[in-house]
Amino acid sequence: MFSKGNLAVICWLWRSMRKLFLLLSLLLSHAAHLEGKKDNQFIWKPGPWGRCTGDCGPGGVQSRALWCFHLEGWTGHLSNCDESNRPPKERSCFRVCDWHSDLFQWEVSDWHHCVLVPSNLGQARPRTAECVTAQHGLQHRAVRCIQKLNRTVVVNEICEHFAPQPPTEQACLIPCPRDCVVSEFSQWSECSRGCQRQLQHRIRAAISPPLYGGSQCPNLTESRACDTPMSCPLGEEEYTFSLKVGPWSKCRLPHLKEISLSGRTVLDFSSDSKERVTFRHQSYKPHHHPKPWDLEIGYQTRQVWCTRSDGRNAVLSLCMQDSFPLTVQSCIMPKDCETTEWSSWSPCSKTCRSESLSPGFRSRSRKVKHVAIGGGKECPELLEKEACIVEELLQPCHRYSWRTSEWKECQVSLLLEQQDPRWHVTGPVCGGGIQTRDVYCAQSIPASTIQKAKEVSRPVKKTLCLGPAPSASQLCNIPCSTDCIVSSWSDWGLCIHENCRDPQGRKGFRMRRRHVLMESTGSAGHCPHLVESIPCEDPMCYRWLVSEGICIPDHGKCGLGHRVLKAICQNDQGEDVSGSLCPASPPPERMACEIPCRMDCVLSEWTEWSSCSQSCSNKNSDGKQTRSRTILALAGEGGKPCPPSQALQEYRSCNDHSCMQLYWETLPWGPCSEDTLVTALNATIGWNGEATCGVGIQTRRVFCVKSHVGQVMTKRCPDSTRPETVRPCLLPCKKDCIVTAFSEWTPCPRSCQPGNATVKQSRYRIIIQEAANGGQECPDTLFEERECEDISLCPMYRWKPQKWSPCILVPESVRQGIMGSSEPCGKGVQTRVVSCISDDNQSAEVMECLKQTNGMPPLVQECAVPCRDDCTFTVWSRFTPCSANCETSRSRRRQLTGKSRKKEKCQDSDLYPLIETELCPCDVFISQPYGNWSDCILPEGRREPQRGFQIQGDGKECGKGVRFRAIACSDKNGRPVDPSHCSSSGYIQEECVIPCPFDCKLSDWSSWGSCSSSCGIGVRIRSKWLKEKPYNGGRPCPRLDLKNQVHEAVPCYSECNQYSWVVEHWSPCKIHNELRSLRCGGGTQSRKIRCMNAADGEGGAVDNSLCNQDEIPPETQSCSLLCPSECVMSEWGPWSKCPQSCDPHSMQRRTRHLLRPPLNSRTCAEDSQVRPCLLNENCFQFQYNLTEWSTCQLSENATCGQGVRTRLLSCVRSDGTPVGVDQCEQRNLEKPQKVSIHCLVECVVNCQLSGWTAWTECSKTCGHGGRMSRTRFIIMPTQGEGRPCPTELTQQKTCPVTPCYSWVLGNWSTCKLEGGDCGEGFQIRSLSCVVHNGSVSDLAISVDDALCGEMPFQDSILKQPCSVPCPGDCHLTEWSEWSTCELTCINGRSFETMGRQSRSRTFIVQSFENQDSCPQQVLETRPCTGGKCYHYTWKASLWNNNERTVWCQRSDGINVTGGCSPQARPAAIRQCNPACRKPFSYCTQGGVCGCEKGYIEIMRSNGFLDYCMKVPGSDDKKADAKNLAGKNRPVNSKIHDIFKGWSLQPLDPDGRVKIWVYGVSGGGFLIMIFLVFTSYLLCKKPKPHQSTPPQQKPLTLAYDGDLDM
């Protein structure tokens, strides 16, 4: 061993070596570090992680870049860095895909309470008095990303992929701290008489809890000792003793060692004494029952001890009673609910892959093996769900889209019936209508797999199609047909051959034509014939047209001469043709004529032949034409005389053909049919762009018609004008009917069905395209139905309880050991087996019965084995029968049995009644109406859908109906009963009327008026007038004029030559000379004029007013007969034509020639005239004139839809005069293209509604307030000015009031201690069946339990533990009443929507010894609605002796503690400032210092008291000097009490020397000096001097002038 010295040396060496070793280690590591830096100066630097890629979910991968950086900052090759330290380049991650939005979501908690914003030091601000209304705060909430299904928290990045993270904090306001508010104290409790020490108490309740950091509630209890006159002598205190029972222990089975305790002595732990109780145990075998419910019955015990009124325990014998409380009882050993293992997961609900990649779900379940018993753990969740990820290998999901059939036929009648319910089909209808189609949902077929076959996807459930469905109805239009508008007839043409290219025979035709002004529209539009012909003789297709030249004398200047004739061959169209075509040789080139000599009579040229007097000849007259010539100059002597007047006129017949015209009449074209001759001419696209299937032919009948006669032989009409009877047409394709495939059969129910009802399944198909043009017809069967096969009936399961076992008591050994009693009686437990069985009495799993019932019947119940001292009875008898009278009652009886009949306690009928009586049931019922009347409900008529469309008619939406009002039925005792006892339907009914809407009613259109213009364009007008105004929401009227009319104007056109002036030839010139001899000179001539209708074949005159009055020809004119010697010139020829531009620089010329030279050499008048072409004077331009478009014109049968707008074409001269269209046509002016266009008149469609749905189920299963409703839907909204849709699309009516039966929990019983005086016990309450009208109230009446059905088997709600305090125990009071609902308010305005109310429990101390064991007072707060804002103010009483009471009061008048601001509390004691320290002074009520009675105040200049001075003679009663003390000093003034026995007090109450002591000391010192000085003066010899009286200092008094000084 080492010595101590050696040991010290070794320790020193070790410490030195350790320091050296440490230093060497540091040097080596530093050197290695420097060497490493020199060798490896490259480090790894990773980049940021990239986006997560790869598979959706946790299988994603994130990567990042890696660089090898030199320490100096530049990058090098990766091999320079240490590979062992290389950071990872990839990591797994959760890849978020769009379909994860269905799996993950942000979960936000509610906002937490608003807390004060922390100060800079990170601490909450201290509560200060500066808070006036509110403080700034922050409130937080938890935000996390969770998986929806199992609410697992995941990383926030997943949810941030879909939506930004919600904020986690926000600013808020915190009201100022509010202290707890409590009520006033109650009165002190009373003290009992006695000598022992007692406590009395008073309590108060919490009204408002502390908020926002306010002070906690003060003590709600105050205790004080009772005033006892004297204390009790030692040992004679008066105590009361109570038997206290403890709580029951847990149920347990007796252990083996407990059973062998027989004869062992055990301490009684229930008392403070050493009294011993002997427990005797006997062998005990627990009771076992067979499966499925293996119940074990154990026992439970409780302690019993004796407690004294001062809270101490006492000897048990002091509390012994006649019957000792039960301390042991049987019980059921608790068993937890037992379930099976989880089933395997179900297949994933998602069996295909959709674009959204949303997940499917799978579930698993477990079943209950047996339920919890005896307070065991309840059953856990039995179903679990989780999402399952879609496998990539799944087939793509079917996609579905909306499909429609083709539009069905347009139904015009629907709208016409809507506007006039009495409308019926009278002919072809056209115009606007409604057409419908079927809308269905079908699987979308990819374009690549669509086959050309007419296979259409089968319809599926409409819920599979997303988005709005296409419209199933629309407005449509059937085009109306209009006839042609044609011009008037032209003049009859010349007689020509039927075929000028092949002239045959001498029979020909004269023709007249008219042209189409406006083409017909529509398939039924008709054009009249445009050509009429008349047979004639000697037809000529080509004629010579001869023009005559001037007469050239043969010899000299007058006498015989010749004219040169120019002949041109023209065809029947007036076109020049070769002369070889004219049949005869051309006329001679010369023609003899005569030029009058100087004295010859001179005649004018023949006029043109007049128009034919008739267009055709009839039996009475023929047509005639005339021409005439006039005498221009009389013959002189020897000259050629003038011819007689008859020779001046010539007549010829004209239009000598019959008035019976011939024309071709056609029938409409027939249908397009196949022509075997043109099968090779197949077409695929028609002229209108529609698909067609080849070319066919159309035929029509053509026949010859003679006017006024009818059809004649075909050969009588000219074949050249015969219309065609065959034309090619495009054959429409045959359309086969196309129907969808049948839908899938509606599924038969997979689960079993209750009862034996047959279940049917059906399928349907939809017509996509109707058959047309001879295609294959549609099948008859569109709907099929069949019964489901192999439908299993649901087995009905029910509980089958066995008989109750005998009552099982506590084992005898336990009973004897604890209670010392061996009689087998008292409370016990009995059990039974309850099994689940099916209808056929086969056992089933418990789960099946639990599914079909509310719960399980009880397996255990308490029972009792009567003891020898108990009363025993027979079972109750049956009730006595009832009579018919409702006032009677019925009763039942029982009797005492055995020895009970002799026991006195059993005779007590109040405790043990032997008769029970109840009222008999009564069949008198009272009904009274309940609720409001329902809407007026029209009777349900048969709603026949018209061709697949429902139409709203007046009869179905208005008229007489019925409204309902529910009745509540009750029996004589006021119990609600089924309404069928009072009324078969449960309703009162009364008739009602829904007024029908009446549309605006106008008259029919008047007939069109005549055209306002006789030539050219005018206006035709027709009108309607108001017959009845609309009301009750009917269709409004169109805009009416002042006469309540509506007009429609269309342009019209009158041929300008339809009515024309016809003039006869001028009469011979009548010389103005009275002499009888014929002389030359000036005169007048006249002629007849008349107005003719060109369209009238008879050529008769019409009223002159029909012709244009502005163009009326003159009937007379001046004329002259030239004398024989005068020069005679011919009449002026026509003016030459002006250019069409009417250029004013161009000239117009006319000429005349000399007919007879003058007798003398005088020159004749000019033979030519020239004038400029002036626009609108002698030169006119022409243009087509178009009217404005007319309003949209519909067919007579149409009310809306497609119509035609027209405008008319006329020709107008540049001066505005309308002229014939031919004037514009001759000038080849450009013609406007369109004179008619299609237009659309908006259809007035009334709102179309569906039928009413069936009435819904009642909103309540029973009682008041239930409502049923039915709805209808808008199929087509209002169009135009149609009847609007009603605002009410839902009708409601009150349900019949059926009685409600409910289980109602009764009130808790008083705490049952089972033999003890205080301690732990239990309360029970009962379940009773009551009848009510929907709300369980105090008025609910108990009825038979069977009416409520199965009772909910929950023992926990019927029994609860409770306690009764023993005398001397410190215990809690009952809960106070809930305070009124109060809101947190700032400046009288609510800070929150929900208020709060509080209640409290406080403790009561009954003995001083138990003060430390008192429980804490309890405050409970709950939210409430309907709260008020309260404010708290300080209140104070009047001052009394400078004191007053101050308290806080709430605004509703309740005095409280807390709530008022402590800083604003008024003073309760009033003190003067400065304090009244002068002798005989005191503080007055006014807060200033005054003097006592007998003293007057001597005041300073600043108003404060200087001192009190005794009033001289104040003892005399007559002295009436007034002072403040005399008025205001109270009799019991404290100041007066102090000074009553005047004594000097040199010290203040706080021990300091008073100021006056210093004053007195100083004064005494001065007096001593004064006395010494006075003695000196007295002793000194005085000098003689004159004495003057000393001046007195004035005395200042406070007086009112009455004092006699």
What does this structure look like?
- By secondary structure, the protein is mostly beta strands.
- Helices cover 7% and strands 31% of the residues.
- It is built from eleven helices and 104 strands.
- A five-stranded antiparallel sheet has the order 15-13-100-99-98, with no helix packed on it. Strands 22-21-17-88-91 form a five-stranded mixed sheet, with no helix packed on it. Strands 37, 38, 39 and 40 form a four-stranded antiparallel sheet that branches.
- The longest helix has 36 residues, at 4-39.
- The chain is elongated and about 200 Å long.
- Mean pLDDT is 78; it is low at 1-5, 28-38, 121-128, 257-292, 679-690, 942-955, 1516-1543 and 1583-1605.
Task: Provide tags for this entry.
1605 residues; mainly beta; 5-stranded antiparallel beta sheet; 11 helices; elongated; disordered N terminus; disordered C terminus
Give me the number of helical elements: 11
What helical percentage do the residues reach?
under 10%
Biggest sheet features:
5 strands, antiparallel
Mean pLDDT: 78
**DSSP E strands, number:** 104
Find the structural class using helix and strand composition: mainly beta
Strand content: 25-35%
Q: What global shape is seen?
A: elongated
Could you give the order of strands across the largest sheet? 15-13-100-99-98
Stretches where pLDDT is under 50 for at least 5 consecutive residues are: 1-5, 28-38, 121-128, 257-292, 679-690, 942-955, 1516-1543, 1583-1605
Spatial separation of the terminal alpha carbons? 122 Å
Radius of gyration: 66 Å
